[in-house]
C-alpha cells in the first residue's frame, strides 16, 4: 500500500464487504464515515467499531437520491476536512434464477438504481472535491466477477455490474494525470449475508468462496497503487480465460464459402486530360 489514508467513506457499510472495509480502516486508525440505507444496522455496527476505538460516523442515506448523496459528501468533508478513500460499495443482488423475460421491470430498475446509478451519483459528488483538494486519493468501485462472467438467470445483477465496470473504466481515463486513483473491485463469491443460502444460477458462480475480511485486505493493499482490477478469488483467472476465449472464438471470421458472392474489387479509374 502506498497511500496512508486518514479518512474514508464507505457505502453499503452495514454488512458484508462494506462492514469489513470499515473495520479494516478503523483498525488502522482511519476515520470512517459509514453509510447505508439500513439505518439501524449501520448505526449499530458503527457503535461496535467506535467501542473498539475507531473514529466512526454513521449516516443513514438512500444513495439513489441525488440530494442525499450531496449531503453525504458535504458532511464527510465538513467532518474530516479531506477524504482520502471513497468505497463506492452499496449494492443489492436482486432477482436471480429467473430468465430476463420473467423479471419484473420494477425489480430490474431497483437493481440498477442501487448498483449503477447510486455509484454514478457518489462519483459525481465526491470526485470533483477529491480533485480540488489536490491530494492523493483513491476511489474504489465495487463491481463483481459478474461484470465479466454471466450465467443464466442473472440478467439484472450482471447487467448492472457491467455498467458499473464501464463507469469505473471511464473514470480511470478521466482521472489520468490527477492524484486520484481508481480501482474496480471484482470479487467472486464472498461469504456475506447477501449470498448466504443462495444457489448460484447456472454458469454464474465460481468454485471458490472468500471472506469479506479477505476482500477488505485486498483493497487495503491496493490503496495508492495503479492496480485497477482487484480480483479476490483464486479461480478468477480461469473464469476470465473462459470468457475471453469465447470472445476470441468469435473475433476471427471464417473464410467465405465458394458460393458466397464477394464484393468486387474496386476498379482503377483514369481521368482524361486535354493537352
From TrEMBL:
Residues 251-275 are annotated as: Disordered. Residues 1-28 form the signal peptide. Keywords: Oxidoreductase, Signal. GO terms for molecular function: oxidoreductase activity. Residues 6-193 form the Ketoreductase domain. Belongs to the short-chain dehydrogenases/reductases (SDR) family. This is SDR family NAD(P)-dependent oxidoreductase.
Amino acid at each position: 500500500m502506498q497511500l496512508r489514508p486518514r479518512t474514508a467513506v464507505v457505502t453499503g457499510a452495514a454488512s458484508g464487504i462494506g462492514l469489513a472495509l470499515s473495520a479494516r480502516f478503523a483498525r488502522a486508525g482511519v476515520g470512517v464515515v459509514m453509510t447505508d440505507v439500513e439505518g439501524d444496522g449501520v448505526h449499530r455496527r458503527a457503535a461496535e467499531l467506535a467501542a473498539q476505538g475507531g473514529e466512526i460516523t454513521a449516516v443513514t442515506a438512500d444513495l439513489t437520491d441525488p440530494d442525499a448523496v450531496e449531503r453525504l459528501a458535504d458532511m464527510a468533508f465538513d467532518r474530516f476536512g479531506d477524504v482520502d478513500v471513497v468505497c463506492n460499495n452499496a449494492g443489492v443482488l436482486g432477482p436471480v434464477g429467473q430468465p430476463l423475460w420473467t423479471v419484473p421491470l420494477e425489480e430490474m430498475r431497483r437493481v440498477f438504481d442501487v448498483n449503477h446509478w447510486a455509484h454514478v451519483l457518489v462519483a459525481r459528488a465526491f470526485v470533483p472535491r477529491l480533485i480540488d483538494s489536490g491530494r492523493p486519493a483513491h476511489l474504489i468501485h465495487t463491481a463483481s466477477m459478474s461484470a465479466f462472467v454471466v450465467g443464466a438467470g442473472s440478467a439484472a445483477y450482471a447487467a448492472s455490474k457491467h455498467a458499473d465496470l464501464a463507469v469505473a473504466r471511464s473514470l480511470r481515463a478521466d482521472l489520468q494525470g490527477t492524484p486520484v486513483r481508481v480501482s474496480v473491485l471484482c470479487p467472486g463469491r464472498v461469504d456475506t449475508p447477501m449470498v448466504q443460502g443462495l444457489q448460484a444460477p447456472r454458469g454464474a458462480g465460481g468454485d471458490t468462496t472468500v471472506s469479506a475480511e479477505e476482500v477488505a485486505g485486498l483493497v487495503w493493499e491496493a490503496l495508492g497503487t495503479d492496480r485497477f482490477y482487484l480480483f479476490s478469488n483464486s479461480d478468477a483467472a480461469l473464469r476470465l480465460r473462459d470468457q475471453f476465449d469465447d470472445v476470441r472464438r468469435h473475433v476471427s471470421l471464417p473464410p467465405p464459402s465458394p458460393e458466397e458472392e464477394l464484393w468486387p474489387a474496386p476498379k482503377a479509374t483514369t481521368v482524361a486530360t486535354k493537352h
